[in-house]
Amino acid sequence: MHGGTQPQETRELEQWLYYYAEDSEPFNSTQELRTVNCWSILVGAPSAKKSPILRRIFSLFKPLDKRAGEVFALAVKAYNGRKKSAENAKEIFDELPPIRRRYVTDDVTTPKLRELMAGNPKGIMLRNDELKGQLERLDKQGNEGDRSFMMSCWSGLEDYSEDRMCRESLLNIPLALTWIGCIRPSPLQRYLCEAMGRSGDADGFM
User: Fold this and answer.
1) Whole-structure pTM over 0.85, yes or no?
2) Which tens digit of pLDDT belongs to each residue from 4-51?
3) I want to staple 119 with a disulfide (CB 3.0 to 4.6 A). Which of 99, 111, 168, 173 is the partner?
């Protein structure tokens, strides 16, 4: 990770993520339809420049996010105009409000992640500059459902439906999640040793 040139793996990851975020169609209609997820960990000591690499990778998405914000602002303005016109005409207005295109989230609860996925069917990226904290949250007692949900996101081939008493149902959410984080070698080693030591209780997350 040191030196003036980027590692080949970093360049390839940048190219792939930008291609993914631009909603390109890598397969023609005669080929198998696939959802491409990328789960990557940048492992290195505190001085290994993990965070600068992560910032460079995700700087690619700033123009896309800016454009998404502009498109959303115009859509909200048009939506509010149609809603006001319907109210003035005393007409029923049942149009759903626009949803902002999202590319990246950093700190998110599992219910909110499902909501973001429902509004972004082409996928979303979870970025953890400190992956250790995210893994520890998934390991806490009471978070077994969150851990199971994250495992369901791995293949990119699953759909998910959620029904709650106090919220509108979310139906057939495509679980397309790219997850990238940074971690030091020692916490990762401890986590892997604990995961392998679970023996019959191992759930396959690691």
Assistant:
1) no
2) 455 565 666 566 555 555 554 444 444 455 566 788 899 999 888 888
3) 99
